[in-house]
Amino acid sequence: MRTLRHARRIAAKDLRIELRTRDILTAMGLFALLIVVVASFSFPTASEHREQIAAGLLWMAFLFAALLGIGRSLAMEHEHACIDALVTSPVPRESIYLGKVLSNLAFVGVAQLLLLPVSIVLLQLTPGRGLALLLVTVALATVALVAVTTLLSAMAVNTRTREAILPLLVIPVALPVLIAAVQATSIALTGGTLTAATPWLLLLTATAALFLLLGLATFRHVLEE
Amino acid sequence: MSVTDTPRDGSTVHPTAQPPVEPTSATGHAEPGPGRPTVLAVATAASMLVLLVGALLWAPTDRLQGDVQRIFYIHVPAAWIGMLAFGVVFVASIAYLVTRRARWDRLAASSAEVGVVFTTGVMLTGPLWGRPVWGVYWDWDPRLTSFFILWLLYISYLVLRSYVTEPTRRARYSAVLGIIAFLDVPLVYVSVRWWRSLHPGPVVANPEGPQLPGSMLAVLLVGIVAFTLLYLLLLRLRIDNAAREDELTAPRRHAPAAGHRGA
User: What's chain B's Rg over C-alpha atoms?
Assistant: First the structure.
């Protein structure tokens, strides 16, 4: 319980900084929107496979926006030497991890909530009764993606190239999440209900649980200096 | 290069010359025992020879695929080593985080490097066989895709290592990634399988008949033994090499190493 309370405080700190600067959300939101725009020129988004293309496109936008935002959120801790204060403060390392996961979830979640309606309009999608499945898929896959990206970006910011290495670490590990998310989203956009995508949702749940547990178990080895 | 040559040379002269002749032990790196790699090298060379004869001469020609099928005897053993080496990275990574001994990190790093060589071999021999038999070099078949992702995971592990300069930090970070990547493999396999089975794509023929004739199976087993020995030999040489690298850099990081836990 105390771990969670500390985590909430750390997340609140991040959200307060973000409310004052709006650095991360602006960068993420615009970047994701630009990906959708570029992809609309690049792929046959008006063809009969529109929903499948849109599903892949949405997740490319979500993935790259998350990499950008989470990389920033961890790099920020280093720029102001905030990470040293966090490490020396009497809170468990798990709280620091959970706190960063919570604030990163908030950043990525807000960016997704902004991007989803815009993409539905721009890509002429009609999810209809698939909307519930769409939202559940996005929620589960985002937890998995953010859990593993937060852990790996805590390592990436301490390498020679800082955040530049982050996509190389995250994307191979996150491929199962992306495959499942794209498939479930594709089912949702063609009007499928929750039951139609049960295997994918189960896989996403299992992945999210595994990545969160691994993050909690190994984060103290990452933050050890 | 010289590191790989020395034990082999030592082994070939072994029956005629006596042990003290071996020059490697005189240079002071005798600690891991140069005798073991030599025995291993002889065993590897012998089993490779048996594999070569078995795969190219003894095993019957496949009635449908012809001689192209013989690539199977190196492709499958290399794939087995690719997975074994990854398992070794996983175990060594956990052992490193628990014990903090540098040797576990050297084992993990060496196994990943040797593993990526074998996995690359799988990725190269697969298309060579696929083109004449399937008609295409590549297909997003579950096994191919899973292996491709396994290869990517290996690469990202090695990339991470090359981007972290401080040795203890590099060891910690790569151990964390080694654990995540290994546990990710079953998820990769499940997701890729479901993806292809739910998706009506081109149906790929069963690579080899449902049952394998006894002689083919025997050659395959020889291949697995030979490749496992080769893996152990390369791993051993790479670990010795890594230990020497650490010895070379040790004096320079002696002072910071003493206080690295607190710093």
Answer: 21
List residues bridging with B66 in a β-sheet.
B62
pLDDT in tens, A24-43: 999 999 999 999 999 888 88
Subunit contact B191:A172, Cβ cutoff 8 A: no
A124, A197, A206 from A210: Cα distances, Å: 35, 20, 6
Of A148, A160, A179, the CB nearest to B192: A179
Q: Which of left, alpha, beta for A91 (phi over 0: left; psi -120 to 50: alpha)? A: beta
AA letter at B105: D
C-alpha span between A190 and B196 (Å, rounded):
19
SS3 content of chain A, % helix, strand, coil (to 5): 85, 0, 15
Asked if the C-beta of B97 comes within 8 angstroms of chain A's C-beta atoms, the answer is: yes
Provide the token pair at A212. 């969160």
Tallying the residues shown for chain B, one arrives at 263
ipTM comes to 0.91
For residue B183, the chain A residues in CB contact (below 8 A) are: 210, 214
CB-based burial, B221-260: b 16+ in 10 Å, e otherwise:
ebbbbbbbbbbbbbbbbbbbebbeeeeeeeeeeeeeeeee
Mutation target among B176, B182, B185, B196 for the A interface, most CBs of A within 10 A: B176
Hey, are the CB atoms on A206 and B160 less than 8 Å from each other?
Answer: no
Sorted by where each begins, the domain ranges of chain A are 2-222
**CB-based contact (8 Å) between A198 and chain B?**
no
Q: Which long-range contacts (CB under 8 A, 24 or more apart) does B155-161 make?
A: B155/A172, B155/B116, B156/A168, B156/A169, B156/A172, B156/A173, B156/B181, B157/B89, B157/B112, B157/B181, B158/B112, B158/B113, B158/B116, B159/A165, B159/A168, B159/A169, B160/A155, B160/A159, B160/A165, B160/A168, B160/A169, B161/B109, B161/B112
Q: Which of residues 189-208 of B touch A (CB under 8 A)?
A: 190-192, 194-195, 198
| CA–CA min distance B69, chain A (Å) | 31
Q: Pick from A172, A183, A210: which is nearest to B195 by CB?
A: A183
Three-class DSSP category at A11: helix
What is the per-residue pLDDT across B203-230, written as a single tens digit (0 to 9) for each?
444 444 446 777 788 888 889 999 999 9
Give the C-alpha separation, B6 to B18, whole Å: 15
CA distance to partner chain A, nearest, from residue B152 (Å):
6
pTM of the model: 0.83
Beta pairing partners, B62:
B66
Structure tokens at A215: 């993050």
For B102, counting Cβ atoms within 10 Å of its Cβ (0-12 exposed, 13-18 middle, 19+ buried), the class is middle
pLDDT digits (tens, 9 = 90+) for A52-99: 889 999 999 999 999 999 998 888 888 878 888 888 888 888 899 999
